[in-house]
Amino acid sequence: MRQIAGRQLWLGHAGDLRDARAVLDAGLAAVVELADSEPHSVLPRDLIRCRFPLSDDAENPPWLVRLTIQSIAAILVARVTLLVCCSAGMSRSVCIAAAGLALAETITIDEALKLVIGSGPADVSSGFYSRVVEVVGNEYGRH
User: Fold this and answer.
1) Cα dihedral across residues 25, 30, 35, 38: positive or negative
2) Is the separation of the CB atoms in 22 and 39 below 8 Å?
3) Domains, the chain, ranges and CATH?
4) Do 20 and 42 meet the contact criterion of CB atoms below 8 Å apart?
5) DSSP string of 66-130?
6) Backbone φ, ψ for residue 137 (5° rounding)
7) Which residue of 5, 23, 74, 134 has the fewest C-beta atoms within 10 A of its own C-beta?
8) Regions of the chain where pLDDT drops below 50
9) CB of 43 within 8 A of CB of 23?
10) Is the pTM of this model over 0.85?
11) Which tens digit of pLDDT belongs to each residue from 30-44?
12) Which of helix, strand or coil describes residue 60?
C-alpha cells in the first residue's frame, strides 16, 4: 500500500487486502475494490467497503465507471481515509483513484494522474484510461 502525498488516499493491490491488520494500522476507514476476477477479501465489518467489477480494458459500461469515480470522490470529499485497490495496483486503481481525486479536488484528470503516479509504480492500460477520460470528460467537462 502507498499513500498519495498530502491526501487521505491510498493505492494498493489485492494482496494488501489479505492483511487486515495492515489496513487498520494504516488508519484506513474505507476500501474500494476494483476487482473483476479477484475473490472477495475478508475484512473487518467496521470498514466501509465498495466493490466495483471493472475490467482493465475499454469495455466497462460508462455508468459503472461513473458510479465508481463518484463514489471515490464522495468518500474523499467526506475526508475519509480510503484505499483503492485492484489486482496488481498498477492500472485500474491508478486511473480510477486519479479520476475520483480530480472530481473531489476540481482538478483535471491529467493533473490528478500525475499526483497518483508520483506515489509509486504504474502500468496504466491505455484502453482503460481512455474510457475513464471519456466518462470524466463527458460528465464534468474536464480532460
Assistant:
1) positive
2) no
3) 2-140 (3.90.190.10)
4) yes
5) HHHHHHHHHHHHTT--EEEEESSSSSHHHHHHHHHHHHHHT--HHHHHHHHHTTS-----HHHHH
6) -65, -45
7) 5
8) 141-143
9) yes
10) yes
11) 999 997 777 677 777
12) coil
